[in-house]
Amino acid sequence: MLYSIRMRAAKGGAHELGGTHISGAERLVTKEELSKIAEKMIWRALHHSKGVADFISLKIDEIKPEDIQTIPCLSIKNFNANSVNEGLQKARELLVNHGISPIAINKGLTELKALARNMRGAILLDATTGKRLDPDHEKGVRVTHMDALDSEKLQQHLERQGLTNIHVREALILASKVLSAPGVLAELCWSDDPDYIAGYVSYGNTYHRISQLKEMHSPIGGRLFFVEPNADVDKLIHYLSTQTVLVDIEEV
Ligand code: WAQ
Ligand code: MG
Question: Collapsing DSSP states into helix, strand and coil, what is residue 153?
Fold first, then answer.
C-alpha cells in the first residue's frame, strides 16, 4: 500500500491566513518509509533559503492501488543561457516551435513578471488566445499526488546526467504529470527559491532545462501551463490535482 504524504510550510502564519509560502513537497511512499520522509520534510521546512517556517502542515492519505496510474518520464535536454534574456529567448523559441502562440506566451510572461508574491499553483492559459483558464487567480492550480515509480532508479538516472539537486527530481516528476494530463500542450517554469535561477520548458516528451530564466536573488517563481483550445478545463484540473501518478523511467 502507498501513502501520499504532503508538506507545506509558511512564515507569518498559515497560507490561508496570509503567511508567506516557504516550502512544499510531496511523495508517495510505503508505510515503512513514512516516518523518515516526514522527518526530512519537516527539516526542509525549517532550513530553507526563503526563511524558517512558523507554520507546517503535513498530510498523509492512504492510496488504493487501483487508483494509481503509471506514466512515462520526460527525457531531459540542457540549454546553457548566459543571461536571463538569452534564457527567455530560448524558452519563447521552444514554445513557438511547438505551436504556442506568441500572444499566449507574452500574456503568460506578463502575468508571471507581475506577481507580487508567489502563487501556490500554476497559471493555466489557452495556448492560442492566452486567455486565463484557472478559476482562482490568486492560488492557481496545484498539481499533487505524484512521485517516481522507483525512486532509486530515478536518482541514478539523474546522477548519470550530473543532475543531483532536489529541484530537478521534483520538477521532472511534476512536469511529467502535467504533460500526461488531457489538454496540456506545454509548460514553462522557474523556481521561487532566491538562489535557484534555472527553469524549464516542457512539451511532447522532453523537459528542456534552461540554465537561467530569472535573476539571482529574485524570490518569485511560477508556472504556466499552456492548454489546448477547447480542452475540458474542469476535467484537466481534476486530473492535475487529484489523480495519483507514478512516473516510470524506461531503461535506456
Ligand atoms: N503545482 C503547481 N504549481 C506549483 C507547484 C505544484 N505542485 N509547486 C510549485 N508551483 C509553482 C508555484 O507558483 C511556485 O512559486 C513555482 O511553481 C516554483 O516552484 O531542472 O524549484 O518548487 O534545474 O520553486 C525548475 C528547474 C525548478 C529545475 C522549479 O519550482 C532544474 C522549482 P518551485
Ligand atoms: Mg521553491
Answer: helix
Tell me which of 75, 113, 184, 192 to substitute to probe ligand 1's pocket, judged by most ligand atoms within 8 Å of the beta carbon.
Answer: 192
Task: Return the beta strands (E) in 88-130 as ranges.
Answer: 123-126
pTM: 0.95
Cβ–Cβ < 8 Å for 72, 89: no
pLDDT tens profile 33-90? 999 999 999 999 999 989 999 999 999 999 999 999 999 999 999 999 999 999 999 9
84-97 and 102-113 helices, crossing angle to 10°: 140
Q: Contact 193/167 with Cβ under 8 angstroms?
A: yes
DSSP letter for 229, please: T
Closest Cα to atom 30 of ligand 1: 191
Q: How far is the CA of 52 from the centre of ligand 2 (A)?
A: 14
User: Pick from 49, 233, 45, 34: which is nearest to 141 by CA?
Assistant: 233
CB within 6 Å of ligand 1 — which residues?
A: 24, 118-119, 121-122, 142-143, 167-168, 171, 174, 189, 191-193, 196, 198-200, 209, 221-223
